[in-house]
Amino acid sequence: MSGHSSPLRDTALLLCDLQNDFIHPDGAYGRGGQKDADIAALPARLAPLARQVRALGGMIVATLFTLPPGRGGEPIISPHLAKLRPFLRTGDFAPGTWGQALVDELAPADSMVEKIAYSAFYMSRLEYILRKSGIERLIVAGIVTNGGVASTVRDAHVREFEITLLSDGCATFSRQVHDVSIEALRPVARIATVAEMLNELTRLGGT
């Protein structure tokens, strides 16, 4: 399907930080004992939606939290993160590694954007890629709801993207914190479930 005829040519599914080091049992967070059933369930829940977005000509953009190497190859870790996640070590979330990569269930992405802070727009090429690709609408999913997802959604809002936030396509380490965060984002994003979005795209595709 060509870009000119695809019904989702102006839409991107933005997958926030759904990476092996966060989600896979063998990743950095799994090694550090930071596991959560809601987070682990996201790839399988989102995979049908990613397939549908691809089929309708939409764009898949993955943000990849990254710990870039600094002096002597040691990862640059912000003080707050080092305190919060003391198990992080050299090689975790390193550029080009398996741990930094998008989980297999959701790959491939059309574009992958390294990020170094909560918001995927901060000091990254995300906005450049979206604008140059003609993207006006974002379907947002990922982790964590009250961190990277919330910051990215708010930054997208002030940049005047039209946003649909998937309430069950996001997760954090506390269901209560997740629910509060979703409610707090209602003023800046439309809220929908993965199933609702799949139904909309199915109707849009005429299948």
Question: Would you mind describing this structure in some detail?
Answer:
The protein is an alpha/beta fold. The chain has a single domain, classed as Rossmann fold (3-Layer(aba) Sandwich), CATH 3.40.50.850. It is 36% helix and 18% strand. The chain has helices spanning 20-23, 28-31, 37-40, 42-55, 79-84, 126-132, 145-158, 175-184, 194-205, and strands spanning 11-16, 59-65, 111-115, 137-143, 162-171, 190-192. Helix 8 (175-184) links the parallel strand 5 (162-171) and strand 6 (190-192). The longest helix is centred in the first third of the chain and has 14 residues, at 42-55. It is globular, with a radius of gyration of 16 Å. The mean pLDDT is 95.
Distance between the termini: 15 Å
Gyration radius, in Å: 16 Å
**What's the CATH architecture name?**
3-Layer(aba) Sandwich
- Mean pLDDT, to the nearest integer, reads 95
Structural class comes to alpha/beta
Question: Mind describing the biggest β-sheet?
Answer: 6 strands, parallel
Portion of residues within helices: 25-40%
Q: pLDDT below 50 for ≥5 consecutive residues: which ranges?
A: none
User: What is the CATH superfamily label?
Assistant: Isochorismatase-like
* CATH level-3 fold name: Rossmann fold
What is the spatial order of strands in the main beta sheet?
3-2-1-4-5-6
- Number of DSSP helices? 9
- What is the class in the CATH system? Alpha Beta
Integer tally of domains: 1
Order of helices and strands: EHHHHEHEHEHEHEH
What's the total count of β strands?
A: 6
- Tell me the fraction of residues in β-strands, as a range: 15-25%
